[in-house]
Specification:
This protein is of the alpha+beta class. Helix content is 39%, strand content 13%.
């Protein structure tokens, strides 16, 4: 599932440059080959360096973990690798 750059970025550019910024980001997502993606990325980077006042990426948690109150010693990690399970124990 591809996200719409307009929903995940706040692109602050003067005037018509905002739509051009979004079009450049869409071109990166639509690139058919890695070489085309690299070219589109370079174009977006150059445009941003010359025209964009600021780009603020928005992020949110991909997953949420809820564990029973009987689970002790477990701390969720940011990649959901569950490496802390080796120090986890369960009470009755």
């Amino acid at each position: 599932m591809e996200s719409d750059p307009a929903e995940t970025l706040r692109v602050q550019t003067p005037g018509a440059n905002k739509q051009k910024s979004i079009n450049l980001l869409n071109a990166i997502n639509a690139a058919p080959t890695p070489a085309a993606e690299a070219t589109a990325l370079k174009a977006a980077e150059d445009f941003a360096a010359q025209n964009v006042l600021s780009v603020v990426p928005y992020a949110m948690a991909q997953r949420t973990e809820i564990w029973s109150k009987n689970v002790h010693g477990y701390t969720a990690d940011q990649y959901s690798a569950r490496t802390a399970l080796k120090t986890t124990w369960v009470s009755k």
